[in-house]
Amino acid sequence: MDSDRTTDGLGYQFADNFMVTNEVKAQFDKDGFIILRNLLDGEELATLKSALEQDQGLANHNYGRDDGEGRQTKTTLWNYPGDDITGIIGRSEKVAGTMEKLLGGEVYHYHAKVIMKEPFTGGAHIWHQDYGYWYLNGNLFPDMGTVWIAVDRADRTNGCLKILPGSHQAGRIDHVKVGDQACADLERVNQLAKVCPLTYVQLDPGDALFFHCNLLHRSDQNSSPNRRWAFLVCYNRASNDPVYKHHHPNYTPLQKVSNAKIKECGVKTDTTGKHFFGGPKEELAMDILSQEK
Ligand SMILES: O=C(O)CCC(=O)C(=O)O
Ligand SMILES: [Fe+2]
Q1: For residue 133, which atom of ligand 1 is closest to its CA?
Q2: Ligand 1 pocket, CB under 6 A
Q3: Which branch of life, at top level (predicted)?
């Protein structure tokens, strides 16, 4: 399955007066995503980038997942936003507030992560829906979504996201384990690709994709010389408090902040209270614990 389609030219230019109008919401409901270009401006992006590059928490807490294609993906993930720039961005009106309007109600921070696709070695994320994972964590409804923010330019040369627009309307698809990842039933993905044509999400640094948790997506390995890092913040509706205790938080009210706080925050690398996740090993330990109950 391949395609020449890209998201080039699609989306909205972010400005402080951006609003989720009925038209924007209708587009999100129909396609399962919207793109906001320049969601982070040059100064905000530069601060985020240097915080990520300096922050030892990111290096010390990152873990790999086999991609079933011979490489590993590299991720650092945490549960609570905290007060550093990653937390302030995740709590800001333009990120969290926009997601609330798209999902139709109050949201809380389910987790955030940095996906580090390094030059030449970056692993793939195989076809999945985020709700393929999150369903198993006791979230009864697919009232969840992710904001995917490009830290580096992401395009088809370095493993940008690939999506099947509108595929969220198919509901949750069966997933099977491949490597350390969950893979959506490929027969179903291929059938859906005939009616929801594969599209490469090409983004410049600071651009963001807001997407629904049932949107099918994947990203290829990075065999190019160009790094492809992305910062992702995932949200759950407050009304969708998970019914199982799992390795992501139950409803925890989000302390939203104004967009101006992003610039005030600066390169603060204090990661107190973020609760970094240990990766597949910790997942296994949690699964054993919940089976013992
Ligand atoms: O950034 C990527 O390439 C994909 C990440 C992803 O889909 C995920 O972490 O669920
Ligand atoms: Fe995903």
Answers
A1: 10
A2: 115, 125, 130, 161, 217, 219, 230
A3: Eukaryota
